[in-house]
Structure formats: structure tokens, C-alpha cells
């Protein structure tokens, strides 16, 4: 479909909305791994993620609470890339956001494309991530360079956020973690905050 140049940023595509419901707490990830073993949770993935976050030329993502990134994932020596847009936080009780993500063939090419469009790299977040499945939730054990260790419990939904969030709280409690320790600041925000101190 033809689109005018002026509509590039002002007339977004409206795909089916999915919401990422995520609760993140600081934790000793080895202790949590032991608890997951006790619960006979299945480890489904081990990955190194390198996320390059971009500043936009047309609005301040720090002010709008949005994020745009290119993610490179390395598994067993092979790397693939994804592009992700995350909308503003939807509620105060979790890190729930609207999210759109798609795979790309070449991370370097997409970096070049967005930089030619005026986007500028803001920061890079690198983490080692182990992923487990617990009752339809992804439980990730993250060791984040220059930030620390965290556990995330997350699930996508196209419906009501509240019951999914409450289920995430229950998973945290099963792992002997306290949902009230939740950290709503992103890894990017924590990295930039530490850099400015």
C-alpha cells in the first residue's frame, strides 16, 4: 500500500495487540535455579542477549516511556536478530507493556537502516539468560553486565492483564521471592542510572 512520506511516523500500522506482562525482582539466581530444580521446572533456553537501544529523531523515548531496540541472541555459537518496540507501562503493579517484535535476517543491516533514518544508539545492554517454564510462564534468570542478577516472570496476553499479573506473583512466591521487591525500572534505565552516578 502506498504511503505518503509525511505519514511515515504519524499513521502507524494497527496489528493485533499483545501485552507483555512482566514482574522482575533482584535475586540470587543460583538459589532460584536450585528452587526451580526442586519444582522440576523445565529449562527451555540458554541465551546471550545483546540489546542496542535507540533514541528516536521525532520524540524523546525517555519522556514517552517507550523503547526501540535491536536484539542479537546467541545460542550455541549461532546469532539471530530481532527488532522490538515497547510501549509505555500500562499499570503501576507490573512492567506490563504493549509490545511488537519481529525477526530480521541481519542485525547489522537493521542497525544501518535505523541510523540512516535518524535513530541514534543510546546504550547496549548485555545479559546471560536462562529460561524455564513454570505454569505457562517464562521464568528467566538474568545476569546483566554492570547491573546485577534478576529473575523475571512473564507471559504475553491479548486480554485482561490483572489475572496474568496475579499468576506471575504466585510463581514468584513459589520461588521464595517477594513480589513487593519488584523492580519496574528497565535494565536500560538501571544501566544509565548507574552510569550517571
From TrEMBL:
InterPro entries: Adenylyl_cyclase_CyaB (IPR008173), CYTH-like_dom_sf (IPR033469), CYTH_domain (IPR023577). Residues 18-193 form the CYTH domain. Pfam families: CYTH. Gene3D superfamilies: Hypothetical Protein Pfu-838710-001 (2.40.320.10). NCBIfam families: cyaB. This is Class IV adenylate cyclase.
Amino acid at each position: 500500500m502506498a504511503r505518503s512520506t509525511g505519514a511515515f511516523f504519524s499513521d502507524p500500522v494497527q496489528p493485533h495487540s499483545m501485552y507483555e506482562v512482566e514482574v522482575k525482582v533482584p535475586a540470587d539466581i543460583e538459589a532460584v535455579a536450585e528452587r526451580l530444580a526442586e519444582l522440576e521446572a523445565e529449562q527451555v533456553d540458554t541465551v546471550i542477549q545483546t540489546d542496542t537501544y535507540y533514541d528516536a529523531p521525532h520524540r524523546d523515548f525517555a519522556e514517552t516511556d517507550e523503547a526501540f531496540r535491536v536484539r542479537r541472541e546467541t545460542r550455541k555459537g549461532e546469532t539471530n536478530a530481532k527488532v522490538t518496540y515497547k510501549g509505555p507501562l500500562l499499570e503501576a503493579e507490573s512492567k506490563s507493556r504493549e509490545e511488537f517484535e519481529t525477526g530480521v535476517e541481519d542485525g547489522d543491516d537493521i542497525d544501518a537502516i535505523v541510523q540512516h533514518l535518524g535513530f541514534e544508539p543510546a546504550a547496549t545492554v548485555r545479559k546471560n539468560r536462562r529460561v524455564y517454564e513454570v505454569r505457562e510462564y517464562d521464568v528467566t534468570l538474568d545476569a546483566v553486565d554492570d547491573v546485577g542478577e534478576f529473575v523475571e516472570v512473564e507471559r504475553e496476553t491479548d486480554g485482561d492483564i490483572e489475572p496474568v499479573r496475579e499468576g506471575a506473583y504466585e510463581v514468584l512466591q513459589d520461588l521464595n521471592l517477594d513480589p513487593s521487591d519488584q523492580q519496574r525500572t528497565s535494565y536500560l534505565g538501571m544501566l544509565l542510572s548507574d552510569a550517571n552516578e
